[in-house]
From TrEMBL:
Family to which the UniProt record says this protein belongs: Belongs to the GcdB/MmdB/OadB family.
Coiled-coil portions: none
Gene Ontology terms describing biological process: sodium ion transport
Protein name as catalogued: oxaloacetate decarboxylase (Na(+) extruding)
Keywords: Cell membrane, Membrane, Translocase, Transmembrane, Transmembrane helix
Length: 194
């Protein structure tokens, strides 16, 4: 999808170095985000709260040991337990149902649409921006962290071996995570209201 919607010239666009973000901004971002979500969309607050709490732990530098544990050991343990618990419930006669396969197909279509929309939006932004944006980073807007950003970087490196897009692509990638969590909160709000 990414290669089909971009030209070789567009994939070679080198983006300017981003400004350095101050420590104050790094600490204020999760606090303000959580406050806004808690006020406007309380159903999404627990999910985004964990995201913001982890970010705040890392950026504050106050709880270095806890932050290191959460980033390394704990995330691996939680991933294993999540995989085991989901896998234990995943019996073939329940999983291979038309509804389940339909949901998987919808997920694939959603990823495709998200990738295409991100690339096309970046191309649209290039029409009115003085600093050109590599359209490949638009595809990282899907909330598959960090693989979507890595794929954008890999495709960019195939066109220009010195064009590193990873850090540029992480912005849309994290924005996709935040957007997905907020969308889930909106859905929860309306589904639970029914």
């Amino acid at each position: 999808i990414m290669k089909a919607l971009t030209t070789e010239k567009e994939r070679k666009i080198r983006m300017v170095q981003l400004r350095t973000v101050s420590k104050r901004e790094k600490i204020l971002f999760p606090a303000v985000l959580l406050l806004l979500v808690a006020l406007l969309l309380p159903d999404a607050a627990p999910l985004l709260g964990m995201f913001c709490f982890g970010n705040l732990m890392r950026e504050s530098g106050v709880v270095e040991r806890l932050s290191d544990t959460v980033q390394n050991g704990l995330i691996n343990i939680v991933t294993i337990f999540l995989g085991l618990s989901v896998g234990a419930k995943l019996v073939a006669d329940k999983f291979l149902q038309p509804q389940t396969l339909g949901i998987l197909l919808l997920g694939v279509v959603a990823f495709g649409i998200g990738t295409a929309a991100g690339v096309l939006m970046a191309k649209l932004l290039n029409l009115c921006s003085k600093n050109k944006i590599n359209p490949l980073i638009g595809s990282a807007g899907v909330s598959a962290v960090p693989m979507a950003a890595r794929v954008s970087n890999k495709v960019g490196l195939e066109s220009d071996a010195q064009n590193f897009l990873l850090m540029h692509a992480m912005g849309p990638n994290v924005a996709g995570v935040i957007g997905s969590a907020i969308a889930a909160g909106v859905m929860l709000k309306y589904v639970l209201a029914m």
